[in-house]
Amino acid sequence: MSQAVSPIDLSAPATSPDALKRRYAAMRAENPRLRVRDAARALGVSEADLVAVRIGDGVRRLGTRWKALIEGMPAVGDVMILTRNEACVHEKVGTFGDIRVSETGGVTLARDVDLRLFFTKWAHAFVVEEELASGLRKSLQVFAKDGEAIHKIYLREESDEAAFEALVGEHLADDQEPGLLALEPRAPKAAERPDSEIDRDALLTRWGAIKDVHQFFGMLKDLGAGRTQAFRLAEGEYTVKVPVHAFRAALEKARDRALPIMIFVGNQGLIQIHTGPVENLKEMGPWMNVLDERFNLHLREDLIADAWIVRKPTDDGTVTSLEIFGEDGEVIAMMFGERKPGQPELEGWREIVSELEKLEAH
């Protein structure tokens, strides 16, 4: 979770690797709990740059053979995986398995390491060693072309460190020189077309003909509609707008009823999924947290701009999601009742959704 960053006035500009490294060290000395994402923002650089300037000092650069790297992860055993976006952090403990990837991406389908991988968005990777009060922490960290963190894999006591080092040894890059990265700014999101230009009748007809939830994205692309734009146009037919605190309410209801749910959190390069119950919920400032033994979620509720209940017809019956979005229209997180293809939606989840539709705004 983000920590407050107090300004540090150092005369050296943060435009050279050494100066950036010194300024970051000074910030960490003042605030040992400072998160690297927040430090990077305060210094006006990317998170990947803050890692890259430390190459040779607890950081090793890896190559970009993503398929082979992921395929080698099962040997490492239990790890903690972390995926985040601006408003939400998703952490799971588990072992990689059931890996189905190509050179451009794929999936891992182990229950506790359930990922959707988009390798075309991956650009930089490092092994990072950090000295913490609890001891040395090792992680594998992947970044996008713009320096945004895509995915982090942390070793635990139970991890096979020798297997991890053997895998790292196979993937070390030839270039181990510290320095700022040649980053590519992320292309701006295309402006949404006016609602009046979207064929609402065609949208509703196509929506009603969906057989599988994975057809939804293709439908939007064909019709030139944005995700929340489609939700607006289908409101009253397939969607219901709900208050932004609906996600918290759904977590609380699922906890109280011991109902297994699915929570999806992603960014441009990866989607990470939790399947199972949630038990220990705790509010800390603007953050709503799930603090379970093998699953943590940290959600900035103040960054939620919109929340929607969305129903999609499938061959297995209606599938219902609760989806939350930021001010920029990007998905923050999605929640479903636990299910697998071929199985109907849990009745307990439908009951929760029905109650969410009756929520009033705070």
TrEMBL record:
Xref: Gene3D superfamilies: HemS/ChuS/ChuX like domains (3.40.1570.10)
Listed Pfam families: HemS (PF05171)
Gene Ontology terms: biological process: iron ion transport
CDD domains registered for this protein in UniProt: HemS-like_C, HemS-like_N
Ranges where the Haemin-degrading HemS/ChuX domain occurs: 44-170, 225-356
Record field: transmembrane: none
InterPro entries, per database record: Heme_Transport_Util_sf, HemS/ChuX_dom
Protein name, per record: Haemin-degrading family protein
